Amino acid sequence: MYAGASCDFNPLHTDEVYATQAAGFPSVFGHGMLTMALTGKAVTNYVGDGRLRRFGGRFRDQVWPGDTLTTRLSVTELRSDDGEPVAVLDVVTLNQHGATVFTGSAEATIDQ
User: Fold this and answer.
1) Residue 4 belongs to what H/E stretch?
2) What span, in angstroms and rounded, lies between the C-alpha atoms of 52 and 55?
3) Cα 30 to Cα 39: distance, rounded to the nearest angstrom
4) At 61, is the secondary structure helix, strand, or coil?
C-alpha cells in the first residue's frame, strides 16, 4: 500500500468509513503523489532511465480504486542545451473514462 511506503496515512486515502461518512467521498482515493509516480514511470519508460532532467505537474482529479490510468506524451520541442539534445514533453494522464487526472511537463536528454 502506497500509504505505508510514503508514510502518508491521511484517512481520505486509507479509511473507507472516514472518507465516505465524515468527508462525503464515494470511497477512499489514491494519493496524488502515487499518480505522479506512476506518470513519472511512464515518462522514464519513454525516454529511458537516467535521462529525465525535469518533471512536474498538477493533480486534476482523484484516482479511485479500480481506475485504469493511461499516460500520453507529446514532444513539444527539441533543442540543444550546451550541445546536449533535449526533448520537452507535455504529459497527460487520464482514467478509463477519459477524465484528466494529471497534467504536466518533462524534459529529458535524448540521443542525436
Assistant:
1) helix 2-6
2) 7
3) 13
4) coil
For residue 57 the three cell numbers come to 505537474
Model pTM score? 0.91
CATH architecture of structural domain 31-109: Roll (3.10)
Q: List average pLDDT for each run of 10 residues in the chain, which is 112 residues long.
A: 86 94 95 96 96 97 97 97 96 98 98 84
Beta carbons within 8 Å of 48's beta carbon, 6+ residues apart: 108
The span from the CA of 68 to the CA of 104, in Å, is 19
For residue 1, the model assigns a pLDDT of: 67
- Grid cell in block for residue 94: 487520464
What DSSP string runs through 37-50? HHHHHHHHHHH-TT
Residue ranges of the domains in the chain?
1-28, 31-109
